[in-house]
Amino acid sequence: MRIVVSPAVGFCYGVKLAIERVLSSSEPGKTVTLGPLIHNAQVVEELEKRGIRVASSLNEVKPEEVLVISAQGTRAEILEEALKRGIKILDLTCPELERTRELMLRILDEGYEVLLLGDPGHSEVESLLSFVPKARLVSPGELPNLPLSKKVALFSQSTQDNNALADLAHKLIVQGARELRVFNTICSATKERQGALRKLLPEVEGVVVVGGKNSANTRRLALIAQENGKRTWHVERAEELEAGWFQGIRAVGVVSGASTPKETVEDVVRRLRSF
Questions:
Q1: Which of 28, 63, 94 is the C-terminal boundary of a domain?
Q2: In the predicted model, what is the mean pLDDT of residues 3-29?
Q3: What residues act catalytically?
Q4: How far apart are CA 52 and CA 44, in angstroms?
Q5: Whether residues 47 and 64 fall in one domain
């Protein structure tokens, strides 16, 4: 079986920066992340071994501890409450997300109806909407009912699909939007991974997607492969792979999400070669 590995594997810039900073800034036993730092179980497990624990709420954070905000950011009210309690904060929100937040606020001040294409409940989306409460969330495939006299500005969750953003922009034009500005705020790592996947799809019969099951950008890769008619397996670890899955498969592609370590992809490739 031929194995085609995407050239776009390993941590993205924002994830790599967050991990490096939390490791260099942390004191064992005194550093807490609000939710997992990234959506990758192996990395979270390794951080816990180094004394960096995960809290599910602000109430679990002690005054003497350092609260780490993940690369996907957090809600504005959580930051405000943490500051009121005197908790020291290490904010590792991805720089690209911070730029998107600032741009949304500026465009809103210019009189635009601001739309955000994104998944309800996603931590990045909740963070952006908390800082820009007048923005409206639009789920993929949804068409909002807008006053057509309004100026409309369209933004995107960083892990969305380029095609979904283009489709929504087209629908808004057809609906009769008088003025539409589209800001492609899908992050470069997401675009790179989706582009690399689409490029290898004609070469393979199946695709192994490596990354966290709760990672939006990783799930998007799996969805793209499925929508293109490829047999698709989404795994977090090499040990999950079974030889029987690949019977009759002559070529398989391997891609990974932005929060998946390169070493995990290499483990997957080694296991595939053993079948």
A1: 94
A2: 88
A3: 124
A4: 9
A5: yes
Sequence-distant (≥ 6) Cβ neighbours of residue 203 within 8 angstroms: 4, 251, 253
pLDDT in tens, 36-87: 888 888 899 999 998 899 998 999 998 888 999 988 899 999 999 999 999 9
Mean pLDDT of 168-182: 89
User: Residue 249's domain is classified under what CATH number?
Assistant: 3.40.1010.20
Of 1-10, 127-136, 165-174, which range is least confident? 165-174
Q: Please check whether residues 31 and 70 belong to one and the same domain.
A: yes
pLDDT of residue 178: 84
Structural domain of 130: 96-186
Closest-CA residue to 67 (of 82, 51, 49) = 82
User: In this structure, what is the dihedral angle of CA atoms 260, 262, 265, 266, given to the nearest 10 degrees?
Assistant: -160
Tokens of 55: 């809290």
From residue 229, how far is each of 178, 184, 218, 222 by CA, in Å?
A: 38, 27, 17, 11
Chain centre distance of CA 130: 18
> Measured between alpha carbons, how far is residue 36 from residues 46, 65, 70, 115 in Å?
12, 16, 7, 27
Residues shown for the chain: 275
Measured distance between the N- and C-terminal CA atoms of the chain, rounded to whole angstroms = 8
Query: What is the DSSP secondary-structure string of 89-106?
Result: EEE---HHHHHHHHHHHH
Percentage with pLDDT > 70 across the chain: 99
The model's pTM is 0.85
- Domains contained in the chain, number: 3
Residue at 257: amino acid letter:
G
